[in-house]
User: What shape does this take?
Amino acid sequence: GDSVTQMEGPVTLSEEAFLTINCTYTATGYPSLFWYVQYPGEGLQLLLKATKADDKGSNKGFEATYRKETTSFHLEKGSVQVSDSAVYFCALSDQRGSSASKIIFGSGTRLSIRP
Amino acid sequence: SQTIHQWPATLVQPVGSPLSLECTVEGTSNPNLYWYRQAAGRGLQLLFYSVGIGQISSEVPQNLSASRPQDRQFILSSKKLLLSDSGFYLCAWSVKAGGTDTQYFGPGTRLTVL
Assistant: This one.
């Protein structure tokens, strides 16, 4: 079945460092890909998404490109801030026609940014 | 704009007691609705989803049940809680097929079973 694998955390960086969180997926169809972020004690927020190959999702300085040839959707940010400290989830969506879409989540990567 | 509410925010219950968690969505009609559980330090597990009133699909067999009595209301229940039911419960909604398949999450309910 479909699955998502993302790098294990925790990841600890200094402020203004470059961030990459790796994510690869396995899917039989053509899924949409997502990054969600979860701040401490809160629900998940959609960070960015891409719906087809070579699409680039971007938001708040974060970017990820849908790479079909490598089945990857790595999250990047050029200069992280302390406020970016959170858990990041990579996910894919298997749209099921008229029924509900099923999102498969990776296990999450905890990111901590030092001032 | 659409908003999703969950309550209570935090709940501490003894083993064997009943449970009722509520989720409501505003600003949209006929959404798909979802219940997830997140165990401490773990990823998300889809528990139930619903494509309409009274229509519930269960993803994993367990001690919990779900109901959708109204279009924008989704309830998670248990008759007798187990220690293993502790976790962070998240409700989510999405637009029906034909639109975006993005799911939008509520703030969550943290359940501790003692």
User: Anything to note?
Assistant: Chain A has a mean pLDDT of 92. The two ends of chain A are 41 Å apart (CA to CA).
